[in-house]
Amino acid sequence: MEKPLNSNNPPLSGSLWLKVLNFVKDRMDHSNYNLWMEPLKPSALQDDVLVVEAPDSFSANWVQNHYGAEITAALQSLGSAVSRVVFVAKDASAGTLTKEGAGDKARDKTTEQDEHKKSVAAPPAPPRKPRSGNSLNPLYSFDNFIIGENNRLAHAAALSVSQSPGTAYNPLFIYGQVGVGKTHLMQAVGNFAKTRDDFRVVYLSSEQFLNEFIDSLLSKNTSTFRNRFRDLDLLLIDDIQFIGGKEETQREFFHTFNTLHDYHKQVVLSSDRPPKELKNLERRLVSRFEWGLVVDIQPPDLETRMAIIENKARMKNFSLPKEVAFCLAEKIEGNVRSLEGALTKLIACAGLYNKNEVDVAFTENILKDLLQTENNKPKIDIASVQEWVGRYYNIKISELKGDRRQQSLVLPRQIAIYLSRKLTGTSLPQIGEAFGGKNHTTILYTCRKVEDKMKNDVNFKEEVERVLLRFKNDLNNN
Ligand code: ADP
Ligand code: MG
């Protein structure tokens, strides 16, 4: 049942939203929580899409990118049927949204080429005006980006694309795990490029692209949508992995991509994995993503982490002694976002305790729950394995638990069962229970099957190891 935006009836019960906020609160530092989460307001529920209002588009974008998946997972684990949460700026929420697949299903069966021509033949574009993604953050610049061995190539490619858009590498595809600086680098490209006269830049996440596309279908305004994205000099789409499984959006993006590419306009994409590993993505898109340059960003090493944290402290005018920077960089590995969260907490506490200069003892004390000691490593349970595998393969937890034999569900389900057995130390019947009431012999059989397959199929073995590695990274970074 559809509820209008801005209706007086809250789309969720207040207590459910509070529980969701508490779930997120445990996963982020307090100042970030107060800044980003407290102002959020659920404003509408349409089918299984929850619309949440943020004070402005930058906040909406930030929360979508950083906590969208967690908030959806929290709702689902609390029993809600919400399949997707969409964050919109307060004054932008006058439209309507619905889930992927809305719109004209009865498309002509045309060839790829015909389809492309058909969709390009949209009404004439409105007068050219400079455009820049409204969520470009000026602090994400090349000047503030620390170059290390982990990101040297990605940085060089991004700089080169900013200097010669549309000619250097097109598209530029940057991938790497969460918190390694992909968004920062993409925004640096956007900020650099938009200083040119009459140069039109749009930066957005693939989820926002999807939402705007759906919106345009509903308001029968696809030509405006097309013009917005095809009359550009630079299109930056962050976290492209989220269009996996969204067929209509992929088709639309395919045409947008072709149009821009044909006119030598620059496209930059980021993802948490290389093009070939993107799930439920059309082959023709995967192949286009590989046309230009595909570069990865690895987690930064100790020296780079130190340089990053020192730079962040300088930007916040906070005096950070070398040994404290070392203490933070040494103890918080991998995800720079967590490192930054630790610094924010340290700065807040230094202010609270009137400390002009922080030392290692003070830092360790303040950050003890964040620092990685053996005692505070998070406990792995079946729900978190399910949540994580579901997110990795872009499928719902209910599908992971269910019995549908579709190949795209069977493999993730088998891997989730195998990892639950391997990582959580729970019994076969408990795992069976958590996977929709399966018999313990089914669980045992599945685990053996996965082990055999890993022995005989090196690609499969690597896939399982990749899932495991990302899961561990995620755990260490939370
Ligand atoms: P991702 O998009 O890969 O998840 P982000 O770009 O959001 O990661 O980076 C997370 C935080 O870490 C941002 O505040 C970003 O400025 C910072 N960061 C990551 N790498 C670097 C770097 N090399 N130099 C400076 N800041 C960095
Ligand atoms: Mg990002």
Write a concise synopsis of the structure shown.
By secondary structure, the protein is an alpha/beta fold. Helices cover 51% and strands 9% of the residues. The radius of gyration is 23 Å and the shape is globular.
Describe this structure in words.
With 478 residues, the protein is α/β, with parallel strands linked by helices. It is built from 20 helices and 8 strands. Strands 5-6-7-4-8 form a 5-stranded parallel β-sheet, sandwiched between helices. A 3-stranded mixed β-sheet has the order 1-2-3. β1 (41-46) and β2 form a beta hairpin. α15 packs antiparallel against α17. The longest helix is centred in the N-terminal third of the chain and has 21 residues, at 57-77. The radius of gyration is 23 Å and the shape is globular. It starts with 13 loop residues before the first helix and ends with a helix. Mean pLDDT is 82; it is low at 1-8 and 93-133. The protein binds adenosine-5'-diphosphate and magnesium ion. Adenosine-5'-diphosphate binds at residues 140, 144-146, 151, 176, 178-184, 308, 336-337, 340.
